[in-house]
Each structure stands twice: as C-alpha cells, then as structure tokens.
Amino acid sequence: MAGLTTTKAPFIEEAQKNGELYIRQPYELYSEENQETWRRLYARIRPKWEKFAHPKFMQGVANLALNPDRIPRLEEINQFLQPLSGFAAKAVSGYVPAYIFFDCLRTRAFPTTVTIRDINSLDYLPEPDIFHDVAGHVPMHTDRRFADVLVRFGEVARSVAEHAQEIRDQEQRVKNVESIIKGMARFFWFTIEFGLMRSGSELKVYGSGLLSSFGEISHCLESPDVQRYPFQMEWVVNQYFEIHHYQPLLYIVDSFDHLFDQVELLEKWILEGRLNNLSPGEPEISEADLASFLDASVRV
Prior knowledge:
By secondary structure, this protein is α/β, with parallel strands linked by helices. The chain is built from 13 helices and 6 strands. Helix 11 links the parallel strand 5 and strand 6 (249-253).
C-alpha cells in the first residue's frame, strides 16, 4: 500500500501536478505503517511534553482529545478547535507561499500537511508533516490569546502588501519586500516555531518546532550549549537561522500578551522602514514567497 508517507505519496503528487493547494485529508489512504509511525512519535514524546511544554500546550492537547493510537482526522480536530479560538486546520498538498500562509492565519485557518514521516526517519524531517503540524502547532491554537497572535501576524503580512503598493520604483519595492519577508520569517521562527516562554519561575517550550522534536525539546532547556536570551526585536529580525541542526540560540518571551505586543512592534518597525535592510543570511527568500507578497500588493 502506498500510504501517505512524506515524499512518497502518489495522492499528493497528483494534487500538486494538478495545481491543487487545498485538498481533502484522504484518511483511507493511511497505511498501518503510517498509523504505527504516529503511535511511536506520540508515545515517546508525551513524557517530554509533560516535563517541558508550556501548560497552555498541555491544556490544548487535552482539549483536542488527541488520540495517541491513530492519526487524527482533521474534521474531528476542528470540532474541538473552532469553538475555542475560531481556528481550523486546513489540509494542503505541500508548501504554501509565505503571503498565502500568513493570510490563512489572518482568517483563522492553519495550513496543515496530511502526510506523515517515514517510520525509519522519526527523529528528523526537513519537511513539515502531520505530526509537526497537528501535534506541534495545533494544541497552542486552542488558546485564544495565542490564536490572536497568529491572526495579528497575518494582518502584519497584509500591511506589508499594502505598504509595497506605495513604492513606485520596482527594484526598490522588490528589495524592501524581500528584506521584510526575511525579517518576518526570522520572527516567526524564533517565536511560533522555536520560542521559549516564562511560566512562573520556570522556562517552558511553546514553539512547535521544539514541541514536535523528541530530542530538541529537552536539549533546548537543559543543554549548556544553547544560548537563551530575553526577546529583543533588533536581535531577532537580524539573526539568521539554519534548519538542519539543533538551534544554538533561542529567545524568551514573558507571556502571550508580551508576544502579541511584539507582533504589534514588528508591524510598527516595518511601516517605519526598519526592516528594509536587514543583515544577510538565512533564510533565503524563494521566488514563490517573494511573488506571493508582490502579487498580493496588487490585490489588497
């Protein structure tokens, strides 16, 4: 059975070939090996969640009634999720260009991968899969204040597109928008994906990249090799990151309100032009991501 294994799923290949970004979750295609992958991933990381994850994440896991024994059906997830924050998981066939992704967040939709990593690659996968998206991201979406952060971030992306219309010189427009996308990607990486947060006297994990990584969730809080600093905007938007190893540098926010305030500050800095010429380095901005913002500037 072909199944829905990441990079090995004919259903996904066909959808991509047909230009279909938004798809259904073809639950009948999951193989027993796919289900066993989910069981193994969940069973081994659950104790680490209980030790290292932010309490709001654990509350979200309970609110979603995540089943440790089978891959979730997105419609079941949404039955629990939507009444809590208005968010819904939305199945996609693969990579979503940056503006489209952020605009989904603005409308309280979360693009969600339906494939799952190979059972022989439990520890690391460069591409997102349903375990990262559903078990790593979605429990935090049950918290209304965190959900508001995502919506606000989507609104910032729309502000960028609107702002781009005001730049008459095409070369300057491209240069500025590319730098701004880089800054937004770095902000998202060091908060939503790899963020730490204070919880009482302790540091806890709220970033999905950490929450879905069996090895890094403990490493990020216990290793002396990790630098942990209070969140500082000028550092974050100028700090490059690499995806293929454990993160050596992480940032701490004080609360979800603090995080929301930083998104507000990000928009202020963008409109003041303070993200127009950021330090070089990762992430490289793809043509698809750049085009998604420049095309959006014509529509909004």
